[in-house]
Design a protein that fits this description.
Layout: E1 4-7, H1 11-23, E2 27-33, H2 40-44, E3 47-52, H3 63-72, E4 77-79, H4 89-97, E5 101-102, H5 107-114, H6 116-126, H7 141-151, E6 155-159, E7 169-171, H8 177-192, E8 197-201, E9 207-215, E10 221-233, E11 236-242, H9 249-264, E12 270-278, E13 284-290, H10 297-304, H11 308-316, E14 331-338, E15 340-341, E16 347-348, E17 351-352, E18 355-357, E19 364-368, E20 375-376, E21 383-391, H12 394-406, E22 409-411, H13 417-425, H14 427-430
Parallel strand pairs: 1-2, 1-4, 2-3, 4-5
Antiparallel strand pairs: 6-7, 6-8, 9-10, 9-12, 10-11, 11-14, 12-13, 14-21, 15-16, 17-20, 18-22, 19-21
Helix pairs in contact: 4-5, 12-13
């Protein structure tokens, strides 16, 4: 087992990893920017190294500085968390060159799933359902028009190196396609330094359902049931839950088997997530694979009583997994609390927290790195907490979440707590009647 792990991340995920490492008897090294010198992950790690200025490019994305910190502290492994360098194959390669274990999949696995077209081709060969679309990257507007005509509208243009909704455009009519094509390519080039785009049939009334998987170094893969991530705003997840109110036991089994096929196709090792779109007829299609721990991993942990971070570390250390597939035994809902003003188009709201009261009680888990007096910097993602409600049924979980949110006090900055309270009270949400387009029609009062 590893003796010391450097955590190449910040905020709540860095704290989450520190806690598991402490339980496993592993020492930890925190890295931090000048803006994060007072962050809790710096306080709770065994060692901490400042690696640069506030901007991510000067600190959390600065690979030479991170590797220098790992060397001077004698870390034998690096955990990337999520975001930043978590799916950077080049970073994983550099870790190997320094004889430091990257806690995650191999560089080849990251690359094979990082490029959307390559991933789609791999899934087709593995027998995993995929959304109908272009076989290769689009080369011209004329090609896009002909393919869309053959396929039938609506279609969606996607960046092959994309994520977070960047380089993505839905086209409903032929006269819109030229502008959408040019815009998607330009946005992809600006966001990912890769303007490659491809086309898929647009799935109407979709659900975003993901299956948690784990694979070890010996070819064993298992799934750990699903999470419903359909409550999104501009392709950014706001609420996640397990089990999905839309998924039947039969569909769960089929999607779990497909997820295992997907991970096995690249001999996947580590924990990861296979993401699917599910239409209103419960047909499901592979969308992408996240080769890292997810923000919403705690939802799965609570419904199957399992530490996914511990499993990830053990897999990296060469420990075999059981190969058991897991079914949800409880119901869990997670609300992401962001420092944003929901009444002002969710504008970021950095600043100093003057008053903080964190909810508790039976069935509540809060993963957060904030405290009274903490200053939220403007340089990073605006998520400051995750509230997870756990209960025997979905109805009870929603009631528990509503109660917890009502007693959550964060003053000094605007947060998305009022949005989540209203969502928990919304009849359509409570009935489980929603798609990825739900927030577009949700009226915040």
């Amino acid at each position: 087992m590893f003796k010391k792990i450097l955590i190449a991340n910040r905020g709540e995920i860095a704290l989450r990893i520190i806690r598991t490492c402490r339980e496993m008897g592993i020492q930890t090294v925190a890295i931090y920017s000048t803006a994060d010198k007072d962050s809790l992950h710096v306080r709770f790690a065994d060692e901490a190294v400042c690696i640069g200025k506030a901007q991510s490019a000067d600190s959390y994305l600065n690979i030479p500085h991170i590797m220098a910190a790992a060397e001077i502290t004698n870390a034998d492994a690096i955990h990337p968390g999520y975001g930043f360098l978590a799916e950077n194959a080049g970073f994983a390669e550099i870790c190997a060159q320094y004889n430091i274990k990257f806690i995650g999949p191999t560089p080849d696995m990251i690359r094979s799933m990082g490029d959307k077209m390559t991933a789609k081709e791999t899934m087709i060969r593995a027998g995993v359902p995929v959304i109908p679309g272009s076989e290769n990257l689009l080369q011209s507007v004329a090609e896009a028009k002909q393919l869309a005509k053959d396929m039938g509208y609506p279609i969606i243009l996607k960046a092959t190196a994309g994520g977070g909704g960047k380089g993505m455009r839905v086209v409903w009519h032929e006269e819109e396609i030229e502008k959408a094509y040019d815009t998607a390519k330009a946005e992809a080039a600006a966001s990912f330094k890769n303007d490659g785009i491809y086309m898929e049939k647009f799935v109407e009334e979709p659900r975003h359902i993901e299956i948690q998987v784990a694979g070890d170094q010996y070819g064993t893969v298992c799934h750990m049931s699903e999470r419903d991530c359909s409550i999104q705003r501009r392709h950014q997840k706001l609420v996640e839950e397990s089990p999905s109110p839309f998924i039947t036991p039969e569909l769960r089994q089929k999607m779990g088997e497909a997820a295992i096929k997907a991970a096995s196709a690249i001999n996947y090792e580590s924990v990861g997530t296979i993401e699917f779109l599910v239409d209103k007829h419960r047909n499901f299609y592979f969308m992408e694979m996240n080769t890292r721990i997810q923000v919403e991993h705690g939802v799965t942990e609570e419904v199957i009583s399992f530490d996914l971070i511990k499993e990830q570390i053990k897999i990296a250390a060469g420990v075999p997994i059981s190969g058991k597939n897991y079914e949800p035994k409880m119901h869990a809902i997670e609300c992401r609390i962001n420092a944003e003003d929901p009444y002002n188009d969710f504008r970021p709201s950095p600043g100093t927290i003057t008053v903080l009261h964190t909810p508790g009680g039976h069935g509540i888990r809060v993963d957060s790195h904030i405290y009274a007096g903490y200053t939220i910097p403007p340089y990073y993602d605006s998520m400051i907490a995750k509230v997870i409600a756990i209960a025997q049924t979905r109805e009870e979980a929603i009631s528990t979440m509503e109660r917890a949110l009502s007693e959550y006090v964060i003053e000094g900055v605007k947060t998305t707590i009022p949005f989540h309270i209203q969502l928990m009270r919304n009849e359509q949400f409570r009935e489980g009647n929603f798609t990825t387009k739900f927030i577009e029609t949700f009226e915040l009062k």
